[in-house]
Amino acid sequence: MDNIKQWLIDHKIEEVQCVTSDQTGVARGKTLPVSSFIDGAKVKLAEGAMLMAGSGDLIEDNILFSLIDERDMDMILKPVEHGCYVLPWAKKPTAMIIHDGYSHLGHEFDLVPRNVLKRVLKLYQQQNWQPIIAPEMELYLTAKCTDPNQPLQPPQGRSGYQEIGRQSFGIEATDEFAPFINDVYQWAEQMQLRLDAVVHEEGRAQFEFNLVHGDPLMMADQVFVFKRMVKEAAKRHGFTATFMAKPISGQPGSAMHIHQSVVDATTGQNIFATEEGDTELFHHFIGGLQTYTPDVMAIYAPNVNSYKRFVAGIAAPVNLQWGLENRTVGLRVPESPVQARRIENRLPGADSNPYLAIAASLLCGYLGMIEKLEPSEQTLTKCNKTRSTTLPLNIDAALSQMINSAKINEFLGERFVQGFTETRKTDYENYKNVISSWERQFLLNTV
User: So what's the pLDDT on residue 164?
Assistant: First the structure.
């Protein structure tokens, strides 16, 4: 705590945002004058804040108060030392500090997504393993849209024109948004976010930003901060950045690809490969992903819109096959030297909570290694023409499979699983009360 106080003084901070991620990935917390924070003010947040749906609604009372005390007690927020970020877009010197959540009894509060990831990482620590994560974040830039009934449009670039067609990896198309991208990189440097390459993706004004690999908890923090930063940068330039899984009809969806490897915590050597080839643990990790991904699909695809991304025949993964340098599989193995041997999980959407998606992916791999699960044969051909019969590809099926998974309840915690699935159900019930333009167009006069 003394290091954080000194950091605030060194950066001449005037205001502190004390935040933690809820299950949707929204920053929840309080804002304090820096003097109050330095003087040791206790930061508390209602436990119920972790059971809010994406719409902001709480889950049903009878379930809510079976998961938390009916008095709706506070949890205690405690700052994370490496979770301090200066906000470049703020009008006065402001810091955002990521916090961990603890119950009033001093235990890690198990409904906090950051704590769910820490729970999974403890499993690796017990085996003397250290996971390494490198996230890739896809997003769309869109023109401002204040009427949700209207379809989203790409924003105007520097030339004054909107993008048309597909501009995959287009340098000139990327340069159209150079002022925005420059701000993203400058702000990332100021915030010490580990950004690497940016590429133009297949969709109109769709981009992918890669983050440098690192410790899973640190990388989840960085994705959490990155998403907020990108949205602010877009606002500065008069348009919107969205991490919706499928914001525009007829365009590809947006993913959060998770590159993952595991090293021996003592030697630092990658346990997935040796000079002689891939190890048994590498194959067991893939076997775990293939076996348990259906049980955590609700984490990878947490919203009704998430499932519109899984369209057969395009870049989105619709299967659990694996293969070397094969982008038509859900589990891609990039060509790499031994120390960088890794598996790219292409299933999670950009709309997933980074703490939970990374926790789920690592848990599946861990179970595969512990249970010595064997993967399928490597896929050497294009395989995205048809959807997998084992993947739940709608929200109802995914939630049901997660709730009924004994392994996921055991390792992520029954209270978390029930709380998470109830927040998703709350949003789904809200969604079912909205009549879409498709229904009006095709059903109004035909049924």
Answer: 85
